[in-house]
Specification:
- The protein has 17 helices and 19 strands.
- With 607 residues, it is an alpha/beta fold.
- The protein folds into three domains: 303 residues, Zn peptidases (Aminopeptidase), CATH 3.40.630.10; 126 residues, no CATH class; 46 residues, no CATH class.
- The strands form five sheets. The protein has an eight-stranded mixed sheet. A four-stranded antiparallel sheet has the order 15-18-14-19, with no helix packed on it. The protein has a three-stranded mixed sheet with strand order 8-12-11, with no helix packed on it.
- The longest helix has 48 residues.
C-alpha cells in the first residue's frame, strides 16, 4: 500500500515538474526572443550612431559650409540616431521645398503644448541670408554635442531650430556675391526663390517662406528667439556683435529685463569664456569713434515680428572680415552661453515676464506706432576698434576710408540705444474688417488672431479714418512702392456692416500684431505696405458739361456751399483760374462723391 502511495506521489511530482519545466522553457524562450530583439534593435541603434557626425565645416578645417541637401541629411541622421532630437517639415517655401523644424529636448517630448507648460523654449533661425551661413554650421554642431553628451544637456530649456530658412537662396550657390566676406568657400545667395530679402518680409508675408515661418512660430511659441547673421559696415576688433530687439520698443517688463539683465548676463558669460562682444556697429561710410545708434528693428524684420508676441529677440551679427572658422566658433559660443544663462539664471522668470508685459500693453490707453531716437540718453562703450582714415583712392581719385588693423585701440564711444514714442494711437476695443478684404483676413488667421463674424447685417458706431497725407517711395522696395509719413483724420459715425464681416477684439494674445498691422500710421502697417492702395484711387467721376448744370442746381439751394466756393475763389488764385479744380472741389462736396475714396476700410470700435 505504501509503495502504491509513493508511486502516485512520484507520478504527481513528475507531472508537476514536467508542467513547471514546460512553463520555464516557454518563459525562457520568450526571454530569448526578447533578448534577441533587443540585441538586434540595439545593434541597429548602434549602427545608426556609428554615423560620422563630423560636419563639413570641421572636415574642411573651418573653410566650408555644407549644401542644403547635406544640412537636411545631417539633421535626419541626428534624429534617427538620438531620441532627444526630432525633425519635422512644416509648410512650403517659394523654392517648392518645405521648411524643416529640428527640436532638441532632453526629455524626448516634442509636444509643444506640453513643453511650454514646463520649459523655456528657444527658437534659432538660420540661413535667412544663406551667404551668412555661420549659424547653419554652429547649430549643426550644437545639436550634435547636446545629443552625444559633449555638452551638458539643459533640463529646463528646449532648443528648436529652422536649419535653413531661405531654401531657394541656399540652392543658388556661388562663391562671388559676398564681395567683402572672408569665407566660406561657397555659399548661398541673399535673395530667395522669388528674389525677396526674407528679412524684410515677416509682416507683409509675400513669400511662402514667411507664411511657413508664421506656422512654425505659432506652433513653437518661443520665449527667446535668435536669428544668426553676418554684419557689414565698419572694421573693428570684435568677431561677435549682438543686435537685441530694441528694448524700449519691446517695452514694459520684458524690455527692462532684456536691457538690464539678459543682455549684460550674456556679455559677461561670453567674456568669461574669452569672447569679446559689442552691440551691432550700425555705421556705414565712416569710423565708429564718433558714436552710433542702435538699429531699430520694425516688424518687417524677424526680431521685430517676434516682438509683437513679446518674445525676447536677438540677432547675432558676426563680423564679415574675420575668418569663417572664428565666426562659426563665436556663433556657437554665443548660443551655448545663452542656453546656459537661460537654464541657470532666467528659466524661472521669462514666462511670467512675458505674461506681465502682455498685460501691461493691453491695459494701457495708448500704443506707440512710431519711434524716434532719445538723444538725451546714451550708453558709453569701451569700444575696441582700428584706426581709420580717409585717404586718396588709387581707383577713383577721390577720398576713401581705409582701416589699419595694425593699429588697434580701445576708446570710449557713445552708443545711442534709447528710443521714445514719436506717435501713439488710442487703443480701440475692437476693429471691424469687411469680409471682402480677404488678403488681410488670411494673414490675421495665419497669425492666430481671434475673430468672430457678424451673424446678421448690423449698424455699428465706429471711429473712421480717412487718409489725410502720405508719401510714397519712388523706387521699389521688396516688391512694393511703400508709403511713409502717413497721417489720418478721424470721424465717428454709424456704418452699416453686412453678415460675415469680422469683429476683432484687441484684448487677445495677438494684441500688438493687430495694432502694428491695422493702424495705418504704424511704420510697417498693412496700409504702408500697399494692402489698401485701391482706396487711394477715385473710382467714379463726372463729365464737366453735364455736371455744370447739376452743380448749379445744388448751389442754388445750398448757401453754405456757395459761400465756401466764393471764399476759395477769393483767396486762392490758382483755384479761381482753374475751372477743372473748382468743379473737382465741388464734386467732392456733393452727394455724388463716393464714400470709399481715401476712407480706410478698417474701422475702430472705441472702448
Amino acid at each position: 500500500m505504501l509503495m502504491i502511495i509513493l508511486k502516485k506521489q512520484h507520478l504527481i511530482f513528475l507531472t508537476k515538474f514536467d508542467k513547471s519545466k514546460s512553463i520555464f522553457m516557454k518563459k525562457l524562450s520568450y526571454l530569448f526572443i526578447f533578448l534577441l530583439f533587443f540585441a538586434c534593435t540595439s545593434e541597429q541603434k548602434n549602427a545608426k550612431s556609428d554615423i560620422d557626425f563630423t560636419t563639413q565645416f570641421e572636415k574642411s578645417g573651418g573653410t566650408q559650409t555644407p549644401t542644403y541637401p547635406e544640412v537636411i541629411a545631417y539633421y535626419e541622421n541626428l534624429a534617427d540616431s538620438y531620441d532627444q532630437i526630432h525633425l519635422e517639415t512644416i509648410g512650403k517655401t517659394d523654392a517648392g521645398e518645405p521648411l524643416h523644424l529640428a527640436t532638441y529636448n532632453s526629455d524626448e517630448n516634442f509636444d509643444f503644448d506640453a513643453i511650454r507648460k514646463e520649459k523655456t523654449i528657444l527658437l534659432v533661425n538660420n540661413g535667412i541670408h544663406p551667404g551668412e551661413s555661420d549659424g547653419i554650421d554652429a547649430t549643426m554642431m550644437l545639436f550634435r554635442d547636446l545629443a552625444n553628451g559633449t555638452k551638458k544637456a539643459p533640463k529646463n530649456v528646449v532648443i528648436a531650430t529652422i536649419p535653413v530658412y531661405n531654401v531657394g537662396g541656399s540652392l543658388n550657390r556661388n562663391s562671388d556675391t559676398r564681395a567683402n566676406q572672408n569665407g566660406p568657400e561657397a555659399y548661398g545667395f541673399r535673395g530667395n526663390a522669388q528674389n525677396y530679402d526674407l528679412n524684410r518680409d515677416f509682416i507683409k508675408s509675400d513669400t511662402r517662406n514667411a507664411k511657413a515661418f508664421a506656422e512654425i512660430f505659432h506652433k513653437v511659441q518661443p520665449d527667446v528667439f535668435v536669428d544668426n547673421h553676418v554684419s557689414n559696415g565698419a572694421d573693428y576688433q570684435y568677431t561677435l556683435t549682438h543686435l537685441f530687439t530694441q528694448h524700449n520698443k519691446l517695452g514694459h517688463e520684458a524690455g527692462t529685463f532684456l536691457h538690464e539683465t539678459m543682455m549684460p548676463d550674456l556679455e559677461e558669460t561670453l567674456q568669461e569664456n574669452n569672447w569679446d562682444i559689442t552691440p551691432y556697429v550700425n555705421v556705414f561710410g565712416r569710423t565708429p569713434e564718433a558714436g552710433f545708434s542702435q538699429f531699430m528693428d520694425s516688424p518687417r524684420y524677424s526680431t521685430g515680428y517676434t516682438t509683437l508676441f513679446n518674445t525676447l529677440g536677438l540677432m547675432v551679427e558676426t563680423h564679415m572680415l574675420k575668418p569663417y572658422k572664428q565666426r562659426v566658433e563665436g556663433t556657437y559660443a554665443l548660443m551655448d552661453a545663452l542656453i546656459q544663462n537661460i537654464e541657470t539664471k532666467h528659466h524661472a522668470n521669462i514666462k511670467s515676464i512675458r505674461a506681465k508685459t502682455h498685460t501691461s500693453f493691453v491695459n494701457a490707453k495708448t500704443y506707440p506706432v512710431q519711434w524716434e531716437l532719445n538723444k538725451s540718453k546714451k550708453t558709453v562703450l569701451k569700444f575696441k576698434g582700428f584706426e581709420g582714415n580717409f585717404i586718396k583712392s588709387d581707383v577713383t581719385g577721390q577720398q576713401r576710408l581705409k582701416y589699419d588693423d595694425t593699429k588697434p585701440f580701445t576708446k570710449e564711444v557713445n552708443y545711442s540705444n534709447y528710443f521714445k514714442p514719436k506717435k501713439e494711437v488710442v487703443i480701440p476695443k475692437a476693429y471691424v474688417i469687411p469680409k471682402g478684404w480677404h488678403p488681410v483676413i488670411e494673414l490675421l488667421k495665419l497669425n492666430k488672431v481671434e475673430m468672430s463674424q457678424l451673424k446678421k447685417d448690423t449698424i455699428i458706431r465706429v471711429e473712421t479714418y480717412h487718409i489725410k497725407n502720405y508719401k510714397t517711395y519712388k523706387n521699389p522696395f521688396e516688391g512694393h512702392y511703400t508709403h511713409y509719413n502717413t497721417e489720418v483724420k478721424k470721424t465717428q459715425q454709424k456704418i452699416g456692416f453686412t453678415q460675415g464681416d469680422f469683429i476683432v477684439y484687441t484684448n487677445q494674445i495677438a494684441f500688438r500684431y493687430l495694432l502694428e498691422t491695422l493702424e495705418p500710421e504704424a511704420v510697417d502697417s498693412f496700409f504702408n505696405w500697399n494692402f489698401f492702395d485701391t482706396i487711394l484711387q477715385q473710382k467714379e467721376g463726372f463729365s464737366a458739361y453735364v455736371f455744370e448744370d447739376e452743380i448749379q442746381k445744388i448751389l442754388n439751394v445750398n448757401q453754405r456751399l456757395r459761400e465756401e466756393l466764393a471764399e476759395k475763389q477769393a483767396t486762392d488764385t490758382t483755384f479761381a483760374n482753374s475751372a477743372s479744380k473748382q468743379l473737382r472741389w465741388l464734386y467732392k462736396q456733393s452727394n455724388h462723391y463716393e464714400e470709399a475714396h481715401l476712407r480706410y476700410p478698417i474701422f475702430r470700435i472705441l472702448r
